[in-house]
Amino acid sequence: MKTILRMYEQLHWANQRIIHTLQLRDNENLESYRLFSHILLAEKVWMTRLQGLDYSHIPLWSDSDLEVCERLVHENEKSYTDYLNRQAYLDLDLAISYTNSKGIKFTNTIRDILTHVALHGQYHRGQINQQLRMENSQPVNVDYITFVRE
């Protein structure tokens, strides 16, 4: 559980760094916003799945602006922090059943879902950094080792 908790500390740190960088930019990069909102919406969808709640109303892709992204950053951090604090004494290998966005049913462990969410965000933050590079902007260092060093 300690490793997952640390992964989520880094996830929240990385989301904060991305939102801060996007807010400071003079020009709007709609693809970066779209990728970032996808990370945040996917985090929200997975949390509702973990909680056994209805998530059919949450889109996975949206043209959200930075205000919506900032709100989601804070909501997701609170949701995952609360969830992980409650899970500290539960079995991470407990299976959760859900239906994906294409209507296909799956069952995965809490551990695998939490690991997926953390890795999924890193993948798309890399894509955001690629967008920034294409605009001759400095990419955001969201490497785990940088998080640990700070």
Task: Determine and state the CATH class.
Answer: Mainly Alpha
Name the poorly predicted regions: none
CATH homologous superfamily heading: dinb family like domain
Instruction: Count all strands and give the number.
Output: 2
Strand content: 5-15%
Tell me, briefly, the overall form. globular
Write down the overall mean pLDDT.
94
What is the structure about, briefly put?
The protein is mostly helical and 150 residues long. It is 65% helix and 7% strand. Strands 1-2 form a two-stranded antiparallel sheet.
Written overview of the protein:
- It is a single chain.
- With 150 residues, the protein is mostly helical.
- The protein has a single domain (2-149), classed as dinb family like domain (Four Helix Bundle (Hemerythrin (Met), subunit A), Up-down Bundle).
- The protein has 5 helices and 2 strands; from the N terminus they run αααββαα.
- It has a two-stranded antiparallel ribbon with strand order 1-2.
- The protein is globular, with a radius of gyration of 16 Å.
Descriptive labels:
2 strands, two-stranded antiparallel sheet
Secondary-structure map:
Elements: H1 2-24, H2 30-50, H3 66-87, E1 95-99, E2 105-109, H4 110-134, H5 144-149
Antiparallel strand pairs: 1-2
Helix pairs in contact: 1-3, 1-4, 2-3, 2-4
